[in-house]
Structures are given as C-alpha cells and as structure tokens.
C-alpha cells in the first residue's frame, strides 16, 4: 500500500513517465544477507549511482535482538546501512570518477544526543545492553552520524567527488511519531503522537535538510540540520576515535554473524 501510494503520488504530480522509473525492492536491513543480495541486484541493474540516502530506521522503541543476536536498533539503523553502502561503493566510486558529484546521506537525528554518555562501541555486549528506548534510538543515530564522518575522513580524500554527510530531519509526522512511540510508552506516547501533532512537519518539510545534502552541498563530513544548517552535533558525534571503534566493531560483528555468506566467500570487508 505504501509503495502504491508513493507511485500514485508521483504519477499525479510528475506524470506517468516519471512514476514508471521507480523500481521498488523490498529489503529488511537488519537481515544482512538479504541486504547484500539487494545491493548486488541494484549494482547489476545500473551503470551509475549518484545519490544514496540511508533512511531505514527503527524508531524510539524497546530493546530487541535480531535473529543473529544483535541489538535491532544498531543492526538496522547503522550496520545494515554499512552493509548496503559497502556493497554499492564500487559503483558509487565509479560514478564519481566520471566527474560528477556523488552524495551519500545518512539520516541521523538530534536524538543522537540521547546516546549514553559512556558509549564506547567496544563490544557486542555493550551495544546489546538495554539502555532504554531513547538511549537505544539515540545510540543508533549517533552511529549513523559517526559513520558519515568516517566515510568523509577516509573516502572523500581518495575520491574528491564522493561526499558523505548526515542530516537531522526534525520532528516529522510519520508512523514512528504517531504509532510506534506507543510501543515503549503506551500512555506517555500521546504527548508525541497527539500533543506534538501541531508542531510536526509533513514529509516534504521533513526532507528539506536531506534533499540539500543529497543534491546541493559540495562539502563532506557535515551534520546538516533544518533547513540546511551545518551543526557540530554532540561531543560524541565529533569524536573521530569513537568513529574508528564503531566501524571496527561493525566489521567484526557483521563478519562473525555472516561468515559463511561473506568472509568464507572472499568478502574483503572494506568500508571505504
């Protein structure tokens, strides 16, 4: 229904020709094997990728482990994006070498400030620790921001036309803020779903900072807040050593949990 609604909206606003250009591929980014398969399918179906927006996300919800035994917030909101991006990097690099600007955008959030102050990203046990709905979400959004800055540090110097940034959309009128919030907070969630309703952005207002990062910016490694204002983020978000530990842990966890389908088949586990 969501896909049909989006395609019909495109048809109404931009015409049938534009709508027919949409290809929908279902993918659960917390399932890394499926994510790799979808990434490979995308890469084999086109000769270029100019924009990659990593926007999948589990909202403010209670702690839950995936079938592979990894915190679902981190597995979906960060590690799945790393798996997807890493498998698309060869094509992203190739596109940038043609002289065009290529942009990677990670959807973060000002809620990254809710990540525990003692976040170290040193072990699976640490990220599997239940730190509460806001902490779980905040930690995963911190990871997305650090990942963008990690790519900007390591990737952009090698490929100057390949940019990586993170964005904050603001409070948007979505399923997360209207329904999912009641999973951890059955009653208190009404403060967000109902009380904040007049202050929520619609999807067009909520995507402004991301569209700027995806189509206009010429810089890399920024955290762009509405409407298009770079901000430093929290102290943890500016910690480059924390970013290095995050990505080291990401590689280790994904490699361990997918070994037979990845490392055993020669996957190099390169993320830049």
Gist of the model:
By secondary structure, the chain is of the alpha/beta class.
Q: Indicate the structural class.
A: alpha/beta
Broad shape: globular
- Taking all Cα atoms into account, the compactness measure Rg is 18 Å
Count of distinct strands: 5
The residue ranges in which pLDDT falls below 50 over 5 or more consecutive positions are: none
Between the first and last Cα atoms, what is the distance in angstroms? 36 Å
Order of strands, widest sheet:
1-2-3-4-5
> Averaging pLDDT over every residue, what do you get?
96
Descriptive overview:
This protein is of the alpha/beta class and 272 residues long. 45% of the residues lie in helices and 8% in strands. The protein has a five-stranded mixed β-sheet with strand order 1-2-3-4-5, sandwiched between helices. Helix 4 packs parallel to helix 6 and helix 6 crosses helix 11. The chain starts with a helix and ends in a 15-residue tail after the last helix.
Which secondary structure elements does this structure contain, and how are they paired or packed?
Layout: H1 2-14, H2 16-19, H3 32-45, E1 51-54, H4 72-96, E2 102-107, H5 124-127, H6 133-154, E3 162-167, H7 175-178, H8 190-195, H9 203-206, H10 208-215, E4 223-225, E5 229-231, H11 240-257
Parallel strand pairs: 1-2, 2-3, 3-4
Antiparallel strand pairs: 4-5
